[in-house]
Write a structure and sequence with these properties.
Blueprint: H1 2-22, E1 24-31, H2 34-50, E2 54-61, H3 63-73, E3 82-86, H4 90-95, H5 109-115, E4 124-125, E5 128-129, E6 132-133, E7 135-136, E8 139-144, H6 145-150, H7 162-172, E9 174-175, E10 181-183, H8 194-205, H9 223-237, H10 250-255, E11 261-265, H11 269-274, E12 280-283, E13 294-295, E14 299-303, H12 309-321, H13 325-335, E15 338-339, H14 342-345, H15 348-351, H16 356-363, E16 366-367, H17 374-389, H18 395-412
Parallel strand pairs: 1-2, 1-3, 13-16
Antiparallel strand pairs: 3-14, 4-5, 6-14, 7-15, 8-11, 8-12, 9-10
Length: about 425
Amino acid sequence: MRGFLCRMIAAALLAMLASQARAVEIEYWQYTFKQRVEAMDTLIAQFQKANPNITVKQVNVPYDNYRTRIAAAIPAGEGPDVAQLFYGWLTDYIKGGLLQPLPEDAFPTATIDHDFFPFVQGMKVGGRYYALPTAVRSLALFWNRKVFQDAGLDPSKQPQTLAELVDIARKTTKRDPSGNLLSAGIALDMTGQDAQWIREVLIREFGGAPYTDDGSKVLYNTPAGVAAVQWYADLITKEKVSELGFMTDGVTAFRSGHAAMTIDGSFRLGAFDDQKGLDYGVAELPAYNGKRANFASYWANGITAKAHGEKLAAAAKFLAFITTPDAMQLWMEKVGELPARVALADTDAVKNHPKYGPFVRGLSYARATVFADESSQRQVMMDMMDRIVIKHTPVADAVATAAAEDQKIIDSRK
């Protein structure tokens, strides 16, 4: 009997040791954004419940430091096994040796091509996917119903055209007797989404294009490009319905009720919903001469070069989990970003939703800009507007300078 018990105990110990040997911990990194962190915490808890031998440690890094931390950690064999990256950073991540291709057996290329929005194919290099998004984004116009009503406007009617936007912005702008801006007709923020609004939306609506389809050549130094930039600049310099840097940034101005309108991404829904007393609506971006355009973007998740062996297998399993339809549904509800799978987004319930709907409908005519270096190219747009507004550089000259700087960045990445 004693021998039998000893064998049973030994077998139990061996089983426990084998279980411990199979246990693996991986790290997941994303930038600090309250709703995204909370959504990922929920997904991690679900994943670990279904996979008790895999522990996922989530690490959040402030946005301004994120790329620097990633670039330093992975070559040193530290940091994340699965990392979040903005789609426009993919080229730099691959050149820096930070990512490895997704395992084909877990992520069949043909299946991804079929199931995900076509612009997600920007994550494919040499026929292999390097990252996949849980969600995608587009832009829309947010308007504050109370501010509209206080200005004598119908709070249920948003601008459908750029001309209507200007008219409403004039009627909702408030200044004190000294001319200081108290409430903006529209919150403008070049550090936010306005660079994308100008480049990928306004320029196209005015009849131009920002770049060639492959992103290799700048095309906006044209009469159409100048006209689009002039329209935006006029909101500040001529119409005086806004100011760059008003209340620090556009999000703060709108959330606090000091802006009638703002242009932002679907990811902002969670933050605006959390703002007590903010009664807002969402609409598709205003058209110009009957033409609409939109900007699509997304944060994807890739497996880093650090992951090997059991960590690689665990990382692939986790990445597959956070890109399932159920994960995308949760992400949309908690964060406000849109499902990356076409079938999940292309439903009447989603397309006609009062808040998600305008973003989803915008995806049908949205483009994801092909960037050489998204951060640097966004800075070009910011510098261009500073020249116009602060230095009073003629718009045509500022656009020409920006186009030259932009082309230089593109050529340096070839």
